[in-house]
Amino acid sequence: MEERHCIRCGEPIPDGSEYCPTCGAALDGTPYDRTADFYRNKAGWKKEDTLESIPRLMMLYGILAVLAGVVAFAAYGMLDGNWAELADENGLFYGLTLDQTSTAVMFIGVFILLSGLCALVSGFMTGKRENYRLSLVLCIAASVLPLFMALGVVDAVLFGIILCVIGLYVTNRIRENGQCFAS
Q1: CB within 10 Å: which end of the chain, N or C, has fewer?
Q2: CA pair distance 157, 144, nearest whole angstrom
Q3: How far apart (Å, rounded) are the C-alpha atoms in residues 110 and 114?
Q4: Residue 153: in which H helix or E strand, if any?
Q5: Where are the alpha helices (DSSP H) in the chain?
Q6: pTM above 0.70, yes or no
Q7: Helix, coil or strand: residue 5
Q8: Contact 68, 116 (CB under 8 A)
Q9: Tens-digit pLDDT profile for residues 18-47
């Protein structure tokens, strides 16, 4: 007898199985339910999908980061007009000239905005359990981009490191639950 293979993941199917033991797809022709709260592992046991709250948290971070980026761009646009009020008697703001401050605010705005956009798209795809690899790559990008805020202000490096560590933890959660994604 010829060995059967899952049409979803391509793994061999044992005789008498109703579901693929690797990805959980039904073998009777019914469409795969990608919103299921579990998937079946190779032993046939149900394993819970632990990504339940991750997409919402990613979307929340994404919204907050995009808003922070927009605020940074607004601040960048208002620096020239408000420099006299911000600068000390030496014409410096926390030891930075107007040009240095403008560059720092622009770097912070660009990188936090890009991080937020990556998190929004990755969170959306993770919530839908689609495009696993792209979701993973975007989550990594959202995690690493805040590190580049330090190019503008060295003091931002600690904040960037904290965001990066949290983002890499979320990335690892997505990686661990990759089998929950539709192919």
Answers
A1: N
A2: 12
A3: 6
A4: none
A5: 54-86, 98-128, 132-144, 157-176
A6: no
A7: strand
A8: yes
A9: 777 777 777 776 655 544 434 444 444 444
